[in-house]
Design brief:
Layout: H1 3-16, E1 17-22, E2 31-38, H2 41-51, E3 54-58, E4 68-74, H3 75-85, H4 92-104, H5 117-132
Antiparallel strand pairs: 1-2, 2-4, 3-4
Helix pairs in contact: 4-5
């Protein structure tokens, strides 16, 4: 991946993307998700070709609207993407979210999914801190 491509991806993430914590399944604690939604299918295909992930088509709800395409990357793959584009981000709100996830998520998430009390408390603290960010 070139620096130009990483900077471009960061710019799109800054403007059209989102960084959030989502529950992928009932009963599980939230995981990081990176998403870029666009009516330009070529743009989301560009992201998928370079970073992996999935694309979900959102059909238009009104005649005068266009279909939208949602590129998504979750969990550790999202963290890898965020680490690679972090030097190029400029929007402070997104930088704060990315920095928090990169600093604390892996430490608060056991690889096997089995939480002891200490790790569970760190995870809950991370979720609350993430939710309190603007």
């Amino acid at each position: 991946m070139t620096e130009t491509e990483l900077a471009y991806a960061a710019g799109i993430l800054d403007g059209e993307g989102s960084v959030c914590l989502i529950k992928s399944r009932a009963g599980r604690l939230p995981s990081p998700q990176v998403s870029v939604v666009s009516t330009d299918q070529e743009l989301v295909n560009w992201f998928k070709a370079r970073f992996g992930g999935t694309i979900v088509c959102k059909k238009r709800r009104k005649e005068h609207h266009s279909d939208a395409y949602d590129w998504r990357l979750i969990d550790r793959r999202a963290l890898g993407f965020l680490a690679s584009v972090r030097p190029y981000l400029t929007i402070q709100r997104k930088i704060a979210r990315v920095d928090l996830l990169l600093e604390a998520y892996l430490d608060a998430t056991p690889r096997n999914g089995r939480y002891d009390q200490e790790t569970y408390a760190r995870k809950i603290e991370l979720i609350e801190k993430f939710a309190s960010l603007p």
